[in-house]
C-alpha cells in the first residue's frame, strides 16, 4: 500500500513527486513544443499525400488506425539518465565502404549514368534501383557516399520495408524515442512530413523566423550517424530543396595553423531534446551531452573532416566560453558560407534522365527520390520555401556509424587527392 501524504517521509514524498513528473508528457524538443498526441494520429491519416498513399498501399502499410505513429508516453524517456541509456553501449560497427572496390565497378557498370553535380560533393546515379543492389554494390555505394558526401537516386520504386533493410545493412538503425514513425512495427523508419510537424507544433513556425540552419543530425549520439537515407515519396512541384556542405572541404579551407590548433581537440555535443534531472527535477531542462574529437578521420576514405555543426556543438573543451564561441562560430561560417563546398538538390522526378513521358503507360506507377548522405562529413539544411512544404512527405532511415576518432597521421581530402592547398 502506498503511504498517504500524512505519513510520507521526505524521501518518499520526493520520490512520489518524481514519479508524478515522469508520468507527464516529455519536455520535448527545445525549439518545437508539441501537442500531446501519442499512438496513431487519427486526424492526419486523411491528409497523406496521394503518392505516399500509393506507395503505402502497394507495400501493405496499414494506416486505417491513423498516421503517423507517435511513440506512447510511457516509452519516451523523461529523465536524462533514461535518455543516455537508450544508446550508451558500443554497438559493433562495420564500415561497409572500407573494403569495397575503390573503382566501384559493379555499381558503376550497372548504372546508366553517373552524374557528378559539383567537383567534390554530390553524385547522381541514374538507372539503378536501390532495392535491387547486391551486397557488393551496397559496399561500393557506401564508399561512394563517403567520398562524395551525398548520392542521389531518382525514380525509385522503394518500399518502406526495403529502405529499413538497407539501413540495417549499413549500421545500427537509429530509433528515435520521440520521432513520428510509420507504425509501431517500423522502428527506425522516421516520418519526414513538415506539414504534419508544423501542424502539430504548439508554436507555429512563422515565415520570418529562421527555420532550418545547417546541421548534422544527432551528433550528441555515442555512435554518430553515418549513412542517412531520406526517401521523398511525395514531392512538391517546386521548392523545398535540400543543401549539403562538405566538412572534408571545410577542414581544407582552414589555415595550417588553425588545423594544427584543432587537431586532437574535442568538443561537447548537446541534444536538442530536453529531459529532467532525477536528483533535482525542478532545476530545469537537462540535455544529453557527449564529447567527440572536432577533427575526425573517416574510416573508409582515411580523410580528415571537421565535425562541428551549429545545432549540436556547444563548446570546445579546454577553451574559455568566449574563445570557444568565437572559434566555433568561425567554423560554422566556413561550412555554411563557402558555396564551393555545397550542393543544392532539387527534389524533382521530371528532370535529368527520368523518362516518364505523359503518355507512358507506366506514368501512374509510383516513383520517389532518394538522397543518401554521410552525416559525419556533412552539414545539411532545407531551403524551407514554406508553401512548397505542403505535399512533401518522406521516410528517413539513419544508420549509426563509429564513435569517431582522430588519426594524427591521416590526410585531408585535398592532400590525399594531391590537389593544390594554395
Ligand atoms: Fe537533419
TrEMBL record:
Its cofactor is Fe(2+). InterPro entries: AtsK-like, TauD-like_sf, TauD/TfdA-like. Residues 115-347 form the TauD/TfdA-like domain. Coiled coil: none annotated. GO terms for cellular component: cytoplasm. One of its GO terms (molecular function) is 2-oxoglutarate-dependent dioxygenase activity. Keywords: Dioxygenase, Iron, Metal-binding, Oxidoreductase. The keyword Repeat does not apply. SUPFAM superfamilies: Clavaminate synthase-like. Belongs to the TfdA dioxygenase family. This is Alpha-ketoglutarate-dependent sulfonate dioxygenase. It comes from Candida viswanathii.
Amino acid at each position: 500500500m502506498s503511504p498517504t501524504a500524512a505519513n510520507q517521509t521526505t524521501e518518499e514524498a520526493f520520490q512520489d513527486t518524481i514519479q508524478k513528473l515522469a508520468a507527464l508528457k516529455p519536455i520535448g524538443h527545445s525549439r518545437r513544443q508539441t501537442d500531446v498526441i501519442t499512438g496513431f494520429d487519427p486526424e492526419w491519416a486523411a491528409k497523406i499525400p496521394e503518392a505516399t498513399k500509393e506507395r503505402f498501399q502497394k507495400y501493405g502499410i496499414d494506416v486505417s488506425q491513423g498516421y503517423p505513429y507517435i511513440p506512447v508516453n510511457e516509452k519516451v524517456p523523461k529523465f536524462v539518465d533514461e535518455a543516455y541509456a537508450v544508446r550508451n553501449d558500443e554497438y559493433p560497427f562495420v564500415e561497409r565502404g572500407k573494403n569495397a572496390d575503390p573503382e566501384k565497378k559493379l555499381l558503376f557498370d550497372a548504372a546508366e549514368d553517373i552524374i557528378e553535380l559539383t567537383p567534390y560533393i554530390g553524385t547522381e546515379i541514374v538507372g539503378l534501383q536501390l532495392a535491387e543492389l547486391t551486397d557488393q554494390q551496397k559496399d561500393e555505394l557506401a564508399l561512394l557516399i563517403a567520398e562524395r558526401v551525398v548520392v542521389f537516386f531518382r525514380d525509385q520504386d522503394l518500399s518502406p520495408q526495403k529502405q529499413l533493410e538497407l539501413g540495417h545493412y549499413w549500421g545500427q538503425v537509429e530509433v528515435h524515442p520521440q520521432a513520428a514513425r510509420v507504425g509501431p512495427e517500423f522502428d527506425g523508419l522516421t516520418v519526414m512530413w513538415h506539414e504534419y510537424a508544423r501542424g502539430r507544433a504548439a508554436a507555429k513556425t512563422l515565415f520570418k523566423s529562421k527555420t532550418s540552419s545547417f546541421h548534422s543530425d544527432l551528433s550528441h549520439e555515442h555512435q554518430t550517424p553515418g549513412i542517412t537515407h531520406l526517401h521523398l515519396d511525395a514531392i512538391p512541384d517546386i521548392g523545398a530543396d535540400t543543401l549539403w556542405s562538405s566538412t572534408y572541404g571545410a577542414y581544407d579551407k582552414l589555415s595550417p595553423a588553425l588545423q594544427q590548433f584543432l587537431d586532437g581537440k574535442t568538443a561537447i555535443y548537446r541534444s536538442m531534446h530536453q529531459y529532467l534531472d532525477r536528483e533535482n527535477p525542478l532545476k530545469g531542462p537537462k540535455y544529453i551531452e557527449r564529447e567527440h574529437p572536432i577533427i575526425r578521420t573517416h574510416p573508409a576514405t582515411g580523410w580528415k573532416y571537421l565535425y562541428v555543426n551549429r545545432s549540436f556543438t556547444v563548446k570546445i573543451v579546454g577553451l574559455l566560453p568566449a574563445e570557444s564561441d568565437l572559434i566555433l562560430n568561425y567554423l560554422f561560417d566556413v561550412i555554411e558560407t563557402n558555396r564551393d563546398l555545397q550542393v543544392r538538390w532539387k527534389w524533382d522526378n521530371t528532370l535529368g534522365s527520368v523518362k516518364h513521358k505523359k503518355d507512358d503507360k507506366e506514368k501512374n506507377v509510383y516513383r520517389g527520390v532518394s538522397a543518401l548522405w554521410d552525416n559525419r562529413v556533412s552539414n545539411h539544411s532545407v531551403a524551407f520555401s514554406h508553401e512548397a512544404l505542403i505535399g512533401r512527405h518522406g521516410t528517413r532511415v539513419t544508420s549509426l556509424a563509429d564513435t569517431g576518432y582522430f588519426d594524427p597521421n591521416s590526410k585531408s581530402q585535398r592532400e590525399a587527392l594531391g590537389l593544390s592547398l594554395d
